[in-house]
User: Fold this.
Amino acid sequence: MKNIMLTLCVICVVFATQAQEVKNRNAKYSIDVNGNCEQCKKRIEKAAYKIKGVKSAVWSVETHQLDLILNEEKTSISAVKKAIAKVGHDTEEEKTTEEVYNNLHHCCKYERSK
Assistant:
């Protein structure tokens, strides 16, 4: 009887571990985002984190690179770029409006390409 119970327990553990296999849907991206200072950094990262599915967002003042980790089942890189443009920062594909850009603090105004 003891052997039967032990065998059943082992079988249950094996099935439970196989059932918990989770597919990793997280993807890493690195995109250029225009900005100048620590205020820009906070604004850019905050805009990225507001998008459901963004796991990590770190923008570098020196390189202007935003390193992202996001769940591709919940969001897309395009949605993140649009959110960043809405707060005043251009990416290669998404541009902010003149009105939003003009409302940035003077130290945050970067050289825009047309």
Remarks:
- The beta strands are 26-32, 54-59, 65-71.
- The mean pLDDT is 88.
- The two ends are 79 Å apart (CA to CA).
